[in-house]
Structures are given as structure tokens and as C-alpha cells.
Amino acid sequence: MRKVLPVLAILPLMTAGCISTATSIVKAPFQVAGKAVDWTTTSQEESDRNYGRKMRKQEAEEGKQRKELAKRCRKDPRRGECGQYQGYRAGE
């Protein structure tokens, strides 16, 4: 009995590494699956950021076109296109 007691005391220390390794192996497929889902889906924050970027780009394009129209109308105000702006409108 006296010989078994020290072995029982040391046993948890010897198997601690094995248990943590086994736990890591069991958790690995779930962690991989979670990463795959994160990569394939778009979060709401990411979607909002992309939409904002798209709208800013469209508004910049509209601004450029309006500026070009104004420049052409200053040069020749008799042109037929110098009334209401009929070009690209952001968000439409």
C-alpha cells in the first residue's frame, strides 16, 4: 500500500499533458468548422462597411459627372444638356 500511494500522487501530473492533448484533438474539428463559417459569411458590420464604401464611390462618380457638365455648360451655355442634371445619380 505504501508503494502505491506515491504512484497515485504522481499519476495526475504524468497524465496532465495527455489530457490537454486529447482535449485539443477533440476540439480541433469544431474550431476548424467555426473558422470556415466565419470565412464564408459576411457579418453585418462588414456588410455595412462595404455598402458605405460603395455609396461613397458612387457619390464621387456623380460629383465628377456634375462637375464636367457644369464645365461644359460654362463653355457653351446654349447646349441642350445645360438644363436639369440628367446623368448618373448615386443610389439609384
Can I get a quick summary?
This protein has 92 residues and is mainly alpha-helical. It is 75% helix and 0% strand. The termini are far apart.
What this model shows, in words?
- Residues 39-92 are annotated as: Disordered.
- This is Lipoprotein.
- Residues 46-71 have a biased composition (Basic and acidic residues).
- Keywords: Signal.
- Residues 1-22 form the signal peptide.
- With 92 residues, this protein is mainly alpha-helical.
- The protein folds into two domains: 1-41, no CATH class; 43-80.
- It is 75% helix and 0% strand.
- It is rod-shaped.
- The N and C termini lie far apart (85 Å).
- The model has no long low-confidence stretch (mean pLDDT 78).
Fold blueprint:
Blueprint: H1 4-40, H2 44-75
Give me the strand/helix succession. HH
User: What's the story with the biggest beta sheet?
Assistant: none
Extract low-pLDDT stretches: none
> Distance between termini?
85 Å
Q: Indicate the proportion of strand residues.
A: under 5%
Strands, count: 0
Q: Helix coverage percent of residues?
A: over 70%
Give me some keywords for this one:
single chain; 92 residues; mainly alpha; 2 helices; rod-shaped
